[in-house]
Specification:
This protein has 157 residues and is of the alpha/beta class. It has one domain: SPOUT methyltransferase, trefoil knot domain (Alpha/beta knot), CATH 3.40.1280.10. It is 43% helix and 22% strand. The protein has five helices and five strands. It has a five-stranded parallel sheet. Helix 1 packs parallel to helix 5 and helix 3 crosses helix 5. The longest helix is centred in the C-terminal third of the chain and has 19 residues. The model has no long low-confidence stretch (mean pLDDT 93).
């Protein structure tokens, strides 16, 4: 099974790019993992928030495969502690979809069609973070989950 972090727009900031790359490499020692980037929309000044979400939603849906298990990283999703996320992830990986896809939407969230396509929603926090920061937080938590599942000393409680 392959795991994918699907994001709208490229990651900006050398520190984010380097840190995300480091965790993606670490995660790849456990499971196939990659970050897929959907290009940012151009000319968004003439679009309403709803129109922007719809267009981004179309691009997200085109990037998904029929057999994907899709998890939306969404502020209204289920929050889990790191160990709970690790157990959840183990179950998802054992269920063997071809791809387990985690999606970070654009600045205004997801379109209704993306919400309908999503199989589950996860929230990383009740706080608001930039989309750049969420990418880093997610790959770090994914790596943490892998180390928990393998009994490695990265996670301390």
């Amino acid at each position: 099974m392959k795991t994918v972090l699907l994001v709208v727009g490229r990651t900006v900031g050398e520190h984010y790019v380097a840190s995300i790359g480091e965790y993606v490499e670490r995660v790849s020692h456990y499971v196939p993992f990659e970050v897929e980037v959907i290009p940012e929309l151009r000319g968004t000044k003439n679009l309403s928030q709803g129109e922007q979400k719809e267009r981004e939603g179309e691009m997200i849906l085109k990037s998904l495969q029929t057999s994907d298990f899709v998890v939306l990283l969404d502020e209204h999703g289920t929050e889990r502690r790191s160990k709970e996320f690790a157990v959840w992830l183990q179950k998802r990986l054992a269920a063997s979809p071809r791809r387990l896809v985690f999606v970070v939407g654009g600045p205004y969230g997801f379109s209704e069609s993306v919400y309908q396509r999503g199989n589950e929603r996860i929230s990383l926090s009740q706080m608001t973070f930039s989309h750049q920061m969420i990418r880093l937080l997610f790959v770090e938590q994914f790596y943490r989950a892998m180390t928990i599942l393998h009994g490695e000393p990265y996670h301390h409680e």
